[in-house]
Amino acid sequence: MKVENRKTLIRIIPILLAVAIAVVICQFRFDFIESFLFDARIRLKPTSNISNKIQTIAIDPKTVDSLKRVPNVRDHLELLKQLQIAQAEVVIYLLQPNELVGSYEELSAWANETLKFKHFHVAIPDVYMKSEEDKFKLSAPFEKINALQAPRTSDRTLFAKDDVTRRMITSYQGRLTLHPVVGALYNETIKDEKNIRGLFEFYEANQTYIDFHPTGTYQAQSFVETISQGLTEGSLKGKAVLIGRDIRSTVNDYIKTPFSRDVVAMSTLEMHANMLDTMILNSAPFSAPKWLDQVLTTIISILTLFVVLMLKPSKGLVILASSVLVFSIACFLTFWTTGLMIGMAHPFLSIFICYYFFIPYRLIMENRKSWEYYQKNKLLTQVEELKTNFLSMMSHDLKTPIARIQGMTSIVASDSNPLSSRQKEALATLDKSAEELLQFVSSILNLGRIESKELKLHLQSKDVNSLLEDVVSKLEYTAQQKQIEISTEFEPMFSMKMDVDLLRQVFSNLVENAIKYSPPKSKVLITTEDRNGKAVIQVADQGMGIPDDEIGHIFMKFYRSKNSKSSTIKGSGLGLYLAKYFVELHHGTIFVDSSLGQGSTFTVELPMDLTDET
Ligand code: ADP
After folding, report:
1. Which atom number of ligand 1 is nearest to the Cα of residue 545?
2. What's the longest Cα–Cα distance across the chain?
3. Residues 189-198: contacts with CB within 8 Å, 24+ apart?
């Protein structure tokens, strides 16, 4: 396979895997996590609207305490009379009439009173199949009362399995339950069940989520206070009144809610108020479509993949955490403002799964890369070693023949037979070439010593000015040949510790370069001064200067500027590299100021307090 194709494949495979992971995750339901996040959104909802069309009346501990019993049918009759006065629009009894205590006549009187209301319903806490029509018929004397199914649901064996009530049934086998029937009296829209927001089918029932409000939102009026103090005329006009129990005698009268897992978190009376209000306001939370869940999960999977494979772990985690935060905030905000429930479980799980799936993949890739680097590095080190060994071996072997040439030239030069001027000239050239060769060889040898870390400082006390004088006097002849004038301005200085050989090489190289790269008849100025405990040596020339883009490179190994490479000026490109190395061995610095065509000034700063230990 071509390298290009392989690279594309290596990029595409993880993306396909991320998409596959997202698709697989979305096939599973994570009801517990989803319900937990649903509850969090309900709990943290900053505001909640109610219709104010509902009034609850509770047989509460106060009622039982003051009557010294649960209310009997006479009390219930009185309640109905009060509700008549208050002009309640709808009355819903959550208590079963056959549980009322009283004589048959009293029960009949109560039953007749119920018929005076336009809308009076008894809520049956169950659902019945179509064939069980009879179960809706209340026995005499309540046979004329309209009974409607008003079941409660809890996630006991299904969904989150935490026994919390979150949903309500709006119809079973096509028959509407109490809440949509009564809700439709207040809200025309839901007359057609299909218009109920968030409706979903579950087996034979249509259901929706309850728009829960915290316990206490629907403040119940005490049963006993209602009958003893009476209700003002028209005070419940247009309202739906729910009558139920809240005496904490049985847990069946209570539910767990998204707000609290306490077994008596909310009375069923208040639960029915929440259910009815959900219908009146048609405000049931509704789930986002499946495709949106799939799309979001896929996007987040791919993002996780990108983070894991492309970014540094710390940066990746920050990006991932902020994306999760932004996504969560967006989910919460949409829920609070529109009631839309965007699934959060699948995207969150995809992050974890993709993260743990792709981390090993990344490790394998990185391992492979570092192995390749290691191999390359090994090869390079071997080549470098070979080169250095070869260079130093060769240089070593060259030293003896050069010395011999120099020896021979001096013998011939000092011979008693007089030499012709051409012969003398030839001898001088021979001697100069041998000297250049020797310098080159010793540079190479020095390089070898540096690279094998053999080089150690041999410190001696010496006055830097006298060292510079030595250097100048050695190079005087070369300068004269180009008619270059070397002048010195030395500040008197104390002797300081230095490796005389190495620094001689440094200064020789600087002065030699100043001569080499300057035109004939120019000037070279060498200065020294004591500046803040440092010996500062400067070699300034009026030569060709160094172009700006090359100035950063001239201290590199084997670097020669373009100008010098194309000119006849000879050099190895090692002089400044070695000079920098030697100066730094002395804990000093070397730098250059130069302007093209005007000249260069090399500055060496050396500490004057160098000791053997440093
Ligand atoms: P070389 O053997 O080429 O002189 P160096 O390491 O001594 O090697 O110098 C590196 C390069 O720096 C030279 O090739 C030259 O281009 C530039 N250079 C050094 N000194 C001077 C100077 N005084 N004036 C102009 N260019 C210089």
Report:
1. 25
2. 164
3. 189/282, 190/279, 190/282, 195/282, 196/170, 196/279, 196/282, 196/284, 197/282, 197/283, 197/284, 197/286, 197/339, 198/284, 198/285, 198/286, 198/287, 198/339
Measured from the CA of 576, which atom of ligand 1 is nearest? 6
Is residue 286 lining ligand 1, measured as CB closer than 6 Å? no
Q: Encoding tokens for residue 224?
A: 């006993």
**pLDDT for the residue 1:** 57
Question: What is the C-alpha to C-alpha distance for residues 322 and 60, in angstroms, rounded to an integer?
Answer: 49
Contact 560 CB / ligand 1 (< 6 Å)? yes
Q: Give one word for 234, left, alpha or beta, with left for phi > 0 and alpha for psi -120 to 50.
A: left
Q: What pLDDT does 570 receive?
A: 78
Question: What pLDDT score does 2 carry?
Answer: 67
* DSSP secondary structure of 305-335: HHHHHHS-HHHHHHHHHHHHHHHHHHHHHHH
- Residue among 435, 442, 438, 433 at smallest CA distance from 392: 442
| CA-CA-CA-CA torsion sign (361, 362, 364, 369) | positive
Q: Which atom of ligand 1 is nearest to the CA of 574?
A: 6
d(CA 116, CA 145): 11
Of 50, 144, 27, which Cα lies nearest the Cα of 97?
144
- For position 356, what pLDDT does the model report? 87
Pocket of ligand 1 contains residue 514 by CB under 6 Å:
yes
Which regions in the chain score pLDDT beneath 70?
1-3, 565-566, 612-614
CA 348/CA 592 separation, integer angstroms: 60
Cα(505) to ligand 1 centroid in Å equals 14
For the chain, the distance separating the N- and C-terminal CA atoms, rounded to the nearest angstrom, is 59
Whole-number Å distance between alpha carbons of 164 and 601: 86
Q: 561 CA distance to ligand 1 centroid (A)? A: 7
Read off the amino acid at residue 330.
A
Cβ-based burial of 482 (10 A; exposed 0-12, middle 13-18, buried ≥19): middle
Task: Return the pLDDT at 380.
Answer: 92
How far is the centre of ligand 1, averaged over its atoms, from the C-alpha of 572 (Å)?
9
The minimum-distance atom of ligand 1 relative to the CA of 544 is 25
CA atoms within 13 A on the CB side of 182: 33
571 lines ligand 1 (CB under 6 A): yes
Q: What is the pTM of this model?
A: 0.62
Strand duo 266-267 + 254-255: pairing: antiparallel
What distances in angstroms separate CA 245 from CA 61, 98, 299, one per listed residue? Answer: 9, 15, 50
> Of ligand 1's atoms, which has the minimum distance to the CA of residue 561?
16
Instruction: Decide: 270 in ligand 1 pocket, CB within 6 A.
Output: no
The token duo for 246 is: 């809240």
Distance CA 8, CA 30 (A): 35
Token pair for 521: 């008849």
- Residue 573 CB–ligand 1 contact under 6 Å: yes
Output the pLDDT for position 614. 55
